[in-house]
Design brief:
Helices cover 60% and strands 5% of the residues. The protein is mostly helical. Strand 1 and strand 2 (118-120) form a beta hairpin. 13% of the residues are buried.
Length: 121
């Protein structure tokens, strides 16, 4: 019988190496380095202009807070870009963090002659 989902040890090693090379970048780092710093916008100014609290912005920039849909809308409008960019950055960051924390078990389908179903390795 054919395996439904199987990652070989070699594929797992390659995936691990790729993951190690690409450390997750939190959206606040991108906000600060790619938007605020080049445009010389302070946290105080961004907070005042967007009605996002200084503490929330500080948390986001330090990687301690997440960009919510409401914040994404405000940042999108302020920087004239799609809010989907901010949500996508947050989702990508959370996904990369989860991949570092979660072990995805390898599913092995036993031989039909043994009469068993799925086995997690």
């Amino acid at each position: 019988m054919v395996a439904l989902f199987c990652i070989s040890p070699k594929q797992k090693t390659l995936m691990s190496k790729k993951t190690e090379l690409l450390e997750p970048i939190f959206p606040g780092e991108i906000l600060f380095e790619e938007f605020m710093r080049p445009l010389d916008i302070s946290i105080d100014q961004l907070s005042f202009d967007t009605a996002i609290s200084k503490q929330t912005l500080t948390d986001i920039i330090q990687g301690k807070g997440a960009i919510t849909a409401e914040i994404a809308l405000k940042l999108g409008e302020y920087f004239c870009i799609s809010p989907d960019l901010w949500l996508g950055l947050q989702t990508d960051y959370e996904s990369r963090i989860a991949k570092h924390k979660v072990f995805i078990p390898r599913i092995i389908v036993e031989n039909q002659s043994r009469g068993a179903g799925f086995q997690f390795a």
